[in-house]
């Protein structure tokens, strides 16, 4: 998914600030696109927390019966991976390395942008509802100019007590995703019945975030509800997810702290203002010329692509 805000926020990232206790991150509503914008609830990045491990972006959308709102023409990415995960509905993906895939609920699309890729995303007509999340992972400096690629994975859910766990990235409780990551990561969906306490063995070196889709949870004495993200610092080898009067569906995200400063603007992740400026200029040139360029070869079905917004007057910079 593109960050198609007309005036994307300038986000300067520092290494994660590991704190002693949980933090509750409230979502902010962001309209993506024009007059018929796709509204999303964004919990990462925020001024108080930019990263959870290498997870750097989290948009939660739907459920909506206006599936036509998910109509995003070709757009670029650099220096990151996109993770598409649906709870309901279907999205058609095309990219400039030749991938064409339809992703459904319970399946994962992972696209590695590396040095540069472009893709489009359209909801499939005929679906009654669209509901899911779009996540980004910042690539570490050593891998951020790798060759772009695309992977599709259908994880197998398993049960723990009365809960269902679906691991799509990393490993949890002996369940391992075959999809390789550049830094240690965890991504899993948790479906937990009401009035339960799900105990999970986790890596104590990981930061964790629990993004609640629906229901009420309490972890380490902190509570979160619909569309909120609960951050948990490293140090614990177990997480106990307690639910309230409603069943809970949530994503458990985790990873070792990235410990790198990054600059994220629009759909680009770089390290300096000059890098992002170059990424934008290269995209604008290819968008106008079409065909093949730094962002790969535009697929034949594409009739238009998204132009990049204007850079802000201020320099893009990372703090620290």
TrEMBL record:
Coiled coil: none annotated. Fe cation binds at residues 75, 77, 119, 121. The keyword Nuclease does not apply. Binds 1 Fe cation per subunit. Residues 189-286 form the Pirin C-terminal domain. GO terms for molecular function: metal ion binding. Its cofactor is Fe cation. This is Pirin. It comes from the Bacteria. Pfam families: Pirin, Pirin_C. Belongs to the pirin family. Keywords: Iron, Metal-binding. Residues 1-39 are annotated as: Disordered. Gene3D superfamilies: Jelly Rolls. CDD domains: cupin_pirin_C, cupin_pirin_N. Transmembrane segments: none annotated. Residues 40-137 form the Pirin N-terminal domain.
């Amino acid at each position: 998914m593109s960050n198609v805000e007309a005036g994307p926020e300038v986000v300067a990232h520092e290494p994660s600030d590991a704190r002693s206790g949980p933090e509750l991150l409230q979502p902010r509503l962001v309209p993506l696109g024009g007059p018929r914008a796709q509204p999303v609830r964004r919990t990462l990045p925020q001024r108080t927390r930019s990263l959870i491990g290498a997870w750097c972006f989290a948009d939660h959308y739907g459920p909506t019966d206006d599936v036509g709102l998910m109509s995003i023409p070709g757009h670029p990415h650099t220096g990151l991976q996109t993770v598409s995960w649906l709870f309901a509905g279907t999205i058609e993906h095309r990219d400039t390395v030749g991938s064409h895939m339809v992703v459904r609920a319970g399946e994962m699309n992972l696209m590695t942008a590396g040095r540069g890729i472009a893709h489009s995303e359209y909801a499939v007509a005929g679906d009654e509802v669209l509901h899911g999340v779009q996540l980004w992972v910042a690539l570490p400096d050593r891998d951020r100019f790798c060759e772009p690629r695309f992977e599709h994975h259908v994880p197998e859910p398993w049960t723990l007590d009365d809960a269902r766990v679906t691991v799509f990235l990393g490993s949890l409780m002996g369940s391992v995703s075959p999809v390789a990551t550049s830094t240690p990561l965890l991504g899993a969906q948790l479906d937990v019945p009401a009035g339960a306490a799900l105990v999970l063995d986790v890596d104590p070196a990981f930061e964790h975030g629990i993004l609640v889709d629906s229901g009420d949870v309490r972890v380490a004495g902190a509570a979160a509800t619909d569309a909120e993200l609960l951050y948990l610092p490293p140090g614990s080898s177990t997480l106990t997810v307690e639910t309230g009067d409603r069943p809970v569906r949530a994503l458990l995200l985790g990873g070792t702290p990235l410990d790198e400063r990054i600059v994220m603007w629009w759909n680009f992740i770089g390290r300096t203002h000059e890098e992002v400026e170059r990424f934008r200029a290269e995209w604008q040139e290819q968008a106008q010329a079409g065909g093949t360029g730094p962002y790969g070869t535009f697929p034949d079905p594409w009739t238009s692509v998204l132009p990049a917004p204007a850079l802000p007057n201020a320099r893009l910079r990372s703090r620290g």
